[in-house]
Every structure is written in structure tokens, then in C-alpha cells.
Amino acid sequence: MRATASVLADAVFVLSSPRIYGFDRASIRDALVLLLEMPDFVVPDGATIRRALDLYVRYPHLDFGDAAIVAAMQRDGATVLFSFDRDFDAVPGISRTEPSP
What we know:
The protein is mainly α. It has helices spanning about 5-15, 25-35, 45-60, 65-75; strands at about 80, 95.
């Protein structure tokens, strides 16, 4: 079975929603890592998604999408991010620059 990263992002959203399941971040990561480790479940760049799940737990101010951005930056060795989102400021090794108008 193949799935995209957006499927995992949707799963994080549903599992974390207090109106639906309200699981804590560590429980979500643990469950989705088990899914990613299944031999017949293939997600392109699964290692980066797994890293994003770890970052999602480590930095509670980041949503999963932001954690995925940081994971991709780390994978690629990038350190500069153009964003208005100040949540990135607390992540070591990331230098956020606000885009100019």
C-alpha cells in the first residue's frame, strides 16, 4: 500500500483533534511510526516523515506541517527559512527571515 505524506498529516490532525480523539503528541507519533514500519505500507521519504513526527513531539509549538518543513530542511542541510511564522524561532539550527514586501 502506498500513501502520501498528506495522508499522515491528516491522520495527525484527526488523532490530535480534541473533538474526535484528542491523543497526545507522543501517542500519535508512536502509533504512526508503527504504521511507517509496516513492510507493506510505503510512504515516499518515510524517514523524513518519521523525523517530522519526532520534531512534532519535541517542539509542541510546531504543528505537524511545520515539523515536516523542519525535517525536510534538516534532510537537505538547509538552515534559512523565509516565513512570517515565529514558531520556527525556537528550533535550533533554523534561521527564520521574514520575506520583504
